[in-house]
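Handout, section 4.2: multi-component inputs.
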Amino acid sequence: MIKKFFPAVRGYGWQSVGASLMIILEGVLEIMIPFFMTKLINEGIDVGPGLPPNIDLIIKYGALMLLMAVFALIAGALCARLAAVAGTGFAANLRNMLFTKVQDFSFANVDNFSTASIVTRLTTDVTNIQNLFTMLIRMTVRNFIIMFTAFFFAMAVNARLSLVFAVTIPLLAGIMLLIMMKAHPFFEKMLSKLDLMNSRVQENLIAIRVVKAFVKGEDEYVSFADAALALKKAQLAAERIVIWNNPISQFIFYAAMVAVCFFGGQLIVGGKMKYGDLSGFLAFIGQILSSVMMLSMVFVSFIITRASQKRIAEVLDERIDINDDDADPALTVSDGSVEFENVNFSYSKNPDNLTLTGVYFSVRSGETIGIIGGTGSAKTTLVQLIPRLYEVLSGSVRVGGHDVREYKLHTLRDSVAMVLQTNLLFSGTIEDNLRWGNENATREQMESACRAACAHDFIMSFPNGYQTDLGQGGVNVSGGQKQRLCIARALLKSPKVVILDDSTSACDTATDAAIRKALRTELAGTTTFIIAQRIASVMDADRVMVLDDGRLVAFDTPKNLYETNEIYREVYESQMKGGEEE
Amino acid sequence: MSSAPKASERVARGPGMRGGPKFAKPKNTKQTFTRLLKYFKPYALTLILVTICIIAAAEANVYGTAQLKPIIDDHLAPMAKFGATGEKWGAFTLAIIKMGIVYALGAVCIYIHSRLMLRVSTGILYDIRTEMFKKMQRLPVKYFDSHTHGEIMSRYTNDTDSMREMLGQGIPNLINSLFRVVSVFIMMLILSPALTLITVVMLVLMIFVVKTLGKRSGAFYKKRQAALGVANGYIEEMTEGQKVVKVFCREEQINERFKKLNDELRKAEAGANTWASILMPIMGNLSYIQYAITAVLGALMVVASLKGDYPALLTLSVGSLVTFLQYTRNFAQPITMMSQQFNSILSALAGAERIFALIDEEPEADEGSVKLVNARLDSTGGLEEVSERTDVWAWKTPEGELTRVRGHVVFNDVTFSYDGEKIVLDDISLYAKPGQKIAFVGSTGAGKTTITNLINRFYDIQQGEITYDGFNIRDIAKDDLRKSLAMVLQDTHLFTGTVRENIRFGRKDATDDEIVKAAKLANAHSFIMHLPNGYDTMIVDDGENLSQGQRQLIAIARAAIADPPVLILDEATSSIDTRTEAHIERGMDELMRGRTVFVIAHRLSTVRNSDAIMVLEKGRIIERGDHRELIAQKGRYYKLYTGAFELS
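Output:
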């Protein structure tokens, strides 16, 4: 899995290596300081009975130590800088890799991940991996170096006494890992309880009116308190294990000191060791044992971020199921004719679980086609195949006489404009949003598209007109106005085919009618597909498709359908009933 | 000796929770802190014990290290010089044991205070969370209009999380570090005032470094947060709009723009991270510089004391030197730690301040005293209050007078504005007689939903009055008023739980049979039975596994089970296709029978059979009457209605 992240280091290789080298330098220097300290005491002061202390040596070793400390400081600071550059560069690369990959996603790929999960992967998960990366180059290298060098110097100072480490290092490492491994599942559990509690709050925020309308505040409080209590218990259970960390590591550390004093003392009295050695050893204990702890922490972070690593790898590994590599770049869409030939489609790509079954139809360029059918009848699915937002399972979708797979995606989608059911405007001005349809649109083109979509008048009623700023998600306009802007945006493409997927549901009937009229007159040559709940929206179409459970059960003029198709008639009557009596 | 770093700090955060320093400062530190102290009150005894243990642990560390000097000077040196005896060995061993015991006690104290503090911190977090939620439930709808969900959510997540860090680690570490620094300093003074002078100089230098770096890193951190906000906002927006991006083939432009934002973030982040992580090596190595200088000067002092003709202030024993050097290493670490804790405590206080602000919000006003009670008609036709559920409801005044609930709602010259400036409803008068169906028609923003929001007092009117069975709705206790109304809203919200639980939301004591009956009434029974576990199917994420139409059917069942005298349907069937709507019509008719119903609908077919239809425009009722009358008027309603027909 780790290998997948290697390309993200690109561009920051030397900083990564440099940071590691600097940290090695710092580590070695930091170990040498107490080592020279022992020499200073041993050779400068504690030179032996009767001999005079060696002041020159004291100053020489002292100056050496000072120099080392200064160099260690510089090396450490450089490492911090290099590691910051490398770590953030790594993260930036990773985010870019993910983002461009997500941009390559087809609709089917997008469906595999929820929006929230993609955002988490690009933000929190990348941060986690970034922290791990920085930790790897700073902490891992540093602590390995410190542990081994300090152990080496300890051996050099006194091999017998360094046996203390042979016991304490594995003991400390073992216990730390044991505690953390044992605690890990409890933390997972705690996090799930935290999610549960948060989702309770979230739900109550979203549905506060429902809660208040049903006077459920008290009950909701009780269930929240339950969730908070469960979280409290889970947190206690998890942290109860982790808090052993400090006393135990402190205890082992103290034990090592006591042991060194005891055995070292005997060696000193026996004349086999000097005071300086004792002082040096005491410094080594701190260095070695704290690096052992750091290493086990790195290991644990590695384990903890495994989930993040996996989530990121999933995005990078996602197979893009629609590509246009074999398409002819010169091929353009010549007209707006659309044909389906025995089209089968399944979201799960499973022939036994078809969403669309055996769809055949042929639409001439310039026709207006209405599509009706109950919820789940696959109306949206059908039209999404036209701009090749999804890939057919079998059969062929043809636009302008060619299979959609023969066009470059860009060519195809520029000619087939689609207004999605869940439509979105982006932050920026109205004009910015309209330019999505045509980067180089003139003011006249924009206005005529907006007039056709019945949007011009309300845009002009805003003080800033086309320069009106829309918040994220277009919060400053009403639902119906938003839909009209989305239609205008699509019309600016001057497409051969326009698809409106329930795109006027929030507009009143008069506006709805006006838009359809404008489409018929001003985009006369354009093939138009209109999915609608309102029967009135399709009643003036040239022909209407009736979908039921993924099958095209009827395709005829509205007049004929009223006579021959029961579903059409039922929908018609459910909406037109009272009207007939007039 | 540098004490072991706290492993728990990292692990405790767990995956997914972003750590790192936050520089948001509280506005009124002292007041917030005092207020926070109140939450500690129930745990006062435990906290005293915690403090004692923290201090004891810090002192044990210092005192244990202090044993080095007597061990070297009083035991090892004489034994090395004059030879060892059994007795001397015994004394030496005893000194070692003493050191061991002090250290061991220190470790035990660490465990005790960690364990006790864990109980306190989880307890306080629980108290604060529940208090906050309880308060949140009592806030007026207006509060939720003016605060985003994200803003309120972050009180529960970020703000309590930083509080958790402060309680669990920040404060204990601060106390511990403080005592260690002070004790070490005192011990140093005792050992050698001269060498301590170096420590003082270094201390000043360290404080200077911390301050300078803190300032720098604070500035960079702000920059980073800003860049992060922009980049994350872009990620969110584009991920949300992914399908639109595909439809418009905007991938390349989007990638370009992201690359730019991403690079800006990288630069700002590299700056912030540099300053944040440079502190450790600088502080650590400053302490080594101090170590080196102390070593040389100390050694010279030892030499001086060997020669014997220097003032006592400038002399030192070997044991003292070794001990002093340990203290030197011990000194820097708590200072670094304190400088880090300080920021996290400040940011936790800022979080606490935001939490307290929510708790201090003015709750929904409720001055009503008329209660809703179950009643029974006695033999003389009079009303009698009963405790069990009956089909008859009654209003009960504080004087004990009972009035039967009929659902007679009257608006008298009601004027309303959300913000006190823009008038949303202008001088509205209308009445709904018991059992009538009143419909509101009009474009978005005409004020239809507002009218229903006033009946249940989500908002209070500024002028005029609304009466309900003759009572001003202000005089009816809010909860009871709302219990007498059931709402089905356009945006149906369901709760995590089973389908059954969601329907039961309407009335807690509903039996399973009643739930099935209500579901059948709403035509929801058949699709519910097709769900994997029928009525026990779990609904997650606001009903993501159901279609919008199915959610509305459940919401209708939820209102049906509440069985109230007044029903408000706000676009309740907008997502149900008209064919299904026609199928549930009989159920809806049954649901509405005998109740006063307010209906808001886009589809005129839904409102056609109402007793009265109000056409609203810009906050005023411009037409009213039943379908036939309005059509005959050939006014706005007629235009709307025929708008659907002009093309046929």
